[in-house]
Structure formats: C-alpha cells, structure tokens
Amino acid sequence: MPVRARGITKSFGEVVALDGIDLDVAAGQVHGLVGPNGAGKTTLLGLLLGLAVADSGRLEILGTPVGRALAAPDGVAGFVDGPGLYPSLTARQNLAALAALRGREHTAGIDEILDQVGLTDLADDRVRGFSLGMRQRLGLAAALLTKPDLLVLDEPSNGLDPAGKKHVHGVLTKLAAEGTAVVLSSHRMDDVEALCSDVTILSTGRVAFSGPLTKLATETHELDYRLVSSDAATARRLAGETAGIRIVDDSGVRRDAELLVVSAPVPALDELVKRLVLAGVAVRELAPVISPLEAAFLALTEQPETN
Ligand SMILES: Nc1ncnc2c1ncn2[C@@H]1O[C@H](COP(=O)(O)OP(=O)(O)OP(=O)(O)O)[C@@H](O)[C@H]1O
C-alpha cells in the first residue's frame, strides 16, 4: 500500500489542521483529495512528501513507517504550493539541472517528458516568462524524471487550459496504469470525476468520506435533475403523477420553457422516462443539476450557520 495513514493529527498553534486522518491509497490508484479552503489538504499532502511531520498517528509511505525526520521517502515525487523551478533557466535546463542534482543521467528522457506534458515548443524558453499553467506542467515533468511509485500533487489542474488539462490527465492516467499511486488535491469536481477512481472528502481536518467514486454515486440517494423534453407541460403532469418524483421550482438553474427540474431517486426517474416515451414525449436532456461528487461535497462539508 503506497499510503497508509492512521489517526494523523497536525496542529499549527491553536489551529488543528488535521484531526485524526485515516487514508489508504493503493498502487495504480488516482486518489482525489477535496474539501473547502482550509480543510487540511495541503497539510496532508505535505506530510506525504516529507515536508512536515505529523504530531501523532501512524504514517506508512511505500511500506516504510515515516519517522520524525523531514525527508521525502525514495520513490515519492511531487509538489505543494507550486513547483520549485529556476526562473533564469529554460524548461529543458530546469529538468537537466534536476536530473543532475539527483545524480543520474536523465537527459535522454527529457525530450520525451517535455512532449508528454505538451511543452516541446517551449523547451528552450526561460521559465521566468512562464504562465501558471506552464509552470504546473513543468512541475509535473520534473516529477516524472524519476518514475515515482507515489506522485503527490497539490492542485495540478490550476491554471491549465483545456489542452494542458488533456496532457496532464493523459500523463497521470498512464502513470497510474503502470502502477504509480497518484494523490492530488483539487477544487474542480469535474476534474476529480474525470480523473480519480477514489476520493477523500476532508472537512475541517477530518475525513467526511473516503472510498471509490462509484460508492459515492450509489450512496447519494436523491439528486436534482434537469429534464428537457419536447413537451414540458406533459412532462410536468407526468412527473407530478409518478411516485417518488418531486418537482423543484426554486432550484436556481436557468429557467426556460422546455426545462423541468425534478428531485428523484434513480428508479423513480427511470419510471418517468418510460412514461414520457409512452406518451410520445421526447427526452432531449436528462442530467443531474450537480454531480454526485459535488452533491456529497456540499452535504458533507457544509458548515453550520453561525449567528
Ligand atoms: N504553516 C502554517 N502555519 C499556520 N497555520 C497553517 C499553516 N499551514 C496551514 N495552516 C492552517 O491549517 C489549516 C489547513 O490548511 P491547508 O493549507 O492544509 O488547507 P487546504 O485544504 O489545503 O486549503 P486550500 O483549499 O485553501 O488550499 C488552515 O486553517 C490553515 O490556516
């Protein structure tokens, strides 16, 4: 198991950043860490990278218990708070310098790595002029210099354009398929859904959910769905007549003539679709207003209102 954490706590003065965290990340898994600002994601990723030590609890990285020393265990790569790069060197020189620092001749692989992250055209430009998204891609390239068994990335999609995202997703998916365990944090639920097999939802330093994304979807019993059909009036009538379906009027989503928003468990929704088709009403669009992950995120991390 590349990551096995039990009862991890970490405080900064009065602030309890991590409050009894359990986390398992298996080889070949892309594991998403999500949670509101300040939930403890970066702190946890920092522990995995050996940038800080926990106050208490047990942490095993790649099968080795982590001690009190600040050191990145062998086989671990990644970054938090943006990658550390030399601004006056080019992208290629940055990678060559890092490879040299690690005492190995990696230059043969540098062109291929730059290509994987989509930086070939910028290989000989100085990093000083790089945008956030370009830096993120170069940071990932640096992490690929040694093929890591555990890759830890804080907000790797930050600042990426669609092409950059495609490259990064491609690289991470390929690494995971080859057995690397990937742990990444993100505020983008769509990215996590596209990329991760498993997710941990953190809320004020505690684990609110940890497990496969598919489990989260089945545990979410009822969601709001947008239904666009060829006959909204009939759809509204049939929805009202179908057991388990509730018509939502104040959902805050775009209102238009063909759109109906209903709240329903999946079997009731199936029944409604069958009735619509029997009545000769075409279903043009049927999708959750927010995804199961986003719904779970909001439900599990909602802060009680303070008056
Ligand atoms: N070096 C530090 N000194 C003092 N407090 C810290 C330090 N690092 C983190 N904290 C506090 O610990 C808590 C968790 O912070 P952390 O950065 O891990 O959250 P996060 O989930 O990564 O947030 P974000 O989504 O905003 O990046 C916050 O309350 C933060 O203020």
From TrEMBL:
Keywords: ATP-binding, Nucleotide-binding, Transport. One of its GO terms (molecular function) is ATP binding. Signal peptide: none annotated. Residues 3-229 form the ABC transporter domain. The keyword Ribosomal protein does not apply. Belongs to the ABC transporter superfamily. It comes from the Bacteria. It comes from Kribbella voronezhensis. This is ABC-2 type transport system ATP-binding protein.
